[in-house]
Amino acid sequence: MMTEGTSFMKGVMLGGMFCLVFTFFANTKMRGDSGLRSHEHHHLKAPNKEELLKLPEAKRMELSLTIRVLCLIMVTPKEIGYWASAVETWSKHCDKAVFYSPENIKVFQSVSLETEDKWIQYRKAFKHAYENYKDNFNWFFLVESTTFAIIENLKFFLLNKDPEQPFYVGHTVKSGDLDYVESSSGVVLSIEALERLYRVFDDPVKCPEKGSLLWKMSEEKELAVCLKYTGVFADNAEDDEGKELFNSKNINTLIGEAMSNKPNEVVEGCCSDVAITFHGNSPNHMHVMMYGVYRLRPYGHTFNDALIFMPPVGSDND
User: Fold this and answer.
1) Are strands 234-238 and 168-170 parallel, antiparallel or unpaired?
2) Which of 111, 135, 146, 201 counts the most CB atoms within 10 A of its CB?
3) Burial label, 153 (beta-carbon count in 10 A; 0-12, 13-18, 19+)
């Protein structure tokens, strides 16, 4: 009797394990492949500077005015120093910056998302951005408060991209069959991609709020899966030399790595001249970056950029 009971329990346990494994792979296939074509992420290039200079000045100015970027900055009251630095530095260069916090706080103006769950925060932030700003902006840039962004370089990169096409751009990482954009270095969606995302949010099967896998995925992977269901795939952003534009490390780390790996080519081996983001900065480091990027200039040196991106109206832009 004991042997039969033991065998029965073993059968139940094995059957349960089989069901778990089967469910996991079935869900992974359903949400990872989503029945759509296989896709290797593209490597999107920034515009060629020389080609831009060939355009008439009036056309270049027209192009620069067509790009409207809304910055969605994810903050937390526990890291008020980062929040303050983002407010005081690079966010002033966004056409508009909206701060999203998991809870209501009086120190800085923000949209309270009323949840600590990162994926639900992302969903609520994107929903809020679409419902309130879809008619005024054509690019939406979600980023963390520990990341420093150079918005003029983002606009330069976006010059030859049509926001009416579904773009989902940043530093792309591959996980199995899924390509996703790392949120630490920033996620850029065109208005078309955001609109598709907004619609799929209402589908509890394709884009569940709580996730449907046995093991919870990160918010950046959840975002990629939901977008994949709508035919939007991750694209890696690079300059015309193939260097990354969205960096998941800060500039000190990148320079240190370049000094170790390419001691004779530290600058060339480090970063793109038109880099867009650097992640993992301390609050003080953000102010140092602001000084180096926007304020320090060699006296008497003339810059011959093909485009000028004017600061937002009423901004105390540096």
Assistant:
1) parallel
2) 146
3) buried
Q: Which two tokens stand for residue 136?
A: 């005024």
- pTM over the 0.85 mark: no
The 10s digit of each residue's pLDDT in 80-136 is: 899 899 999 999 999 999 999 999 887 788 999 999 999 999 999 999 999 999 999
Whether the CA torsion 302, 303, 308, 312 is positive or negative: it is negative
CA-CA-CA-CA torsion sign (109, 113, 115, 119): negative
DSSP collapsed to 3 states, the chain: CHHHHHHHHHHHHHHHHHHHHHHHHHHHHHHHCCCCCCCCCEEEECCCHHHHHCCCHHHHHHHHHHCCEEEEEECCHHHHHHHHHHHHCHHHHCCEEEEEECCCCCCCCCEECCCCCHHHHHHHHHHHHHHHHCCCCCEEEEEECCEEECHHHHHHHHCCCCCCCCCEEECEEEECCEEEECHHHCEEEEHHHHHHHHHHCCCCCCCCCCCCCCCCCCHHHHHHHHHHHCCCCEEEEECCCCCECEECCCHHHHHHHHHHHCCCCHHHHHCCCCCCEEECCCHHHHHHHHHHHHHCCCCCCCCCCCCCCCCCCCCCCC
Cβ neighbours of residue 178 under 8 Å, at least 6 residues apart? 32, 221, 224, 225, 228
